[in-house]
Structure formats: structure tokens, C-alpha cells
């Protein structure tokens, strides 16, 4: 793991290094998947890159290859018909640990008693406003 950047005070980096025990589900050279110890549903787990990056945009592309395949394998193994994959960036977006991580959260029923309860406060933007935002983002992607 010498080529993997870590941060000494990061709880997830400590889990990666084996300094903090975890219920490890799977591991590759670039990711670690383990059970969430503060689950909001039975089977709630995390997939994290071993490389320490605070936000998704900070994570090098070569460290992303195993993330979605790991989440898909976990979803298939867990056998939940309905589930959420969640990734937050920054405190206002509800990120609690400053290390990129993806939640696999089973949603066993339509009520909000178990699993992720999500509101979708759609903004009332005009097509002109959407087009303007599109042009700004698209221009920066090129």
C-alpha cells in the first residue's frame, strides 16, 4: 500500500491500514468494502477508495475503477430488490467523514422507518436557465 496516499488522522485510512477493525466484505488493490457501524438499514455498508481524497473530484481516475463493480457485487450478494447508492461531498451535502465513500443502503419498504428517506425538492428553473447552466458546464468539460 506504499503507493496509496493516506491521512494519519482519517478514520477510514486507519481502517484501510488495519489500525481499526472492520467487518470487511471485500477488498481490491484500490478499494475496501465494509459494514457501516452506524447503519440506517440492515446491510448498510460502505465502499471506500484506499487512496485518501476528501471529495470525489479529488480522487484520481485510476482509483475509481473498482468502486462501481464492488457496489454491484455487494447489491447482488445482499439480494435487496431496492436500495440506494449514496455519495456525499462536503458538510452541507451531509458528508461526515472527509474521505470519499459510497454507501450501499438497502430500502426494504416504501416507508421511511428503515433505509434512506429522500426528499426531492425540485427547483422551478426555466428552460433558458437550464440551458445557461448547461452551456457553462459543457464549456468547461471541453
From TrEMBL:
Transmembrane intervals: none
GO biological process assignments: nucleotide metabolic process
Matching InterPro entries: HINT (IPR039384), Histidine_triad_HIT (IPR001310), HIT-like (IPR011146), HIT-like_sf (IPR036265)
Domain of life: Eukaryota
Active site, per annotation: 101 (tele-amp-histidine intermediate)
Record motif Histidine triad motif, residues: 99-103
Domain HIT: 11-115
GO molecular function: catalytic activity
Name under which the protein is recorded: HIT domain-containing protein
Amino acid at each position: 500500500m506504499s503507493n496509496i496516499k493516506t491521512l494519519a488522522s482519517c478514520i477510514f485510512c486507519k481502517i484501510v491500514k488495519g489500525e481499526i477493525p472492520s467487518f470487511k466484505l471485500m477488498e481490491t488493490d484500490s478499494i475496501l468494502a465494509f459494514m457501516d457501524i452506524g447503519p440506517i438499514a440492515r446491510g448498510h455498508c460502505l465502499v471506500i477508495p484506499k487512496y485518501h481524497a476528501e471529495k470525489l473530484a479529488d480522487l484520481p481516475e485510476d482509483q475509481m475503477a473498482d468502486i462501481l463493480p464492488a457496489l454491484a457485487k455487494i447489491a447482488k450478494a445482499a439480494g435487496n430488490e431496492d436500495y440506494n447508492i449514496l455519495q456525499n461531498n462536503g458538510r452541507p451535502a451531509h458528508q461526515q467523514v472527509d474521505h470519499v465513500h459510497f454507501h450501499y443502503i438497502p430500502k426494504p419498504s416504501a416507508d421511511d422507518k428503515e433505509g434512506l428517506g429522500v426528499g426531492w425538492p425540485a427547483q422551478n428553473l426555466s428552460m433558458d436557465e437550464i440551458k445557461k447552466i448547461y452551456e457553462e458546464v459543457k464549456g468547461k468539460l471541453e
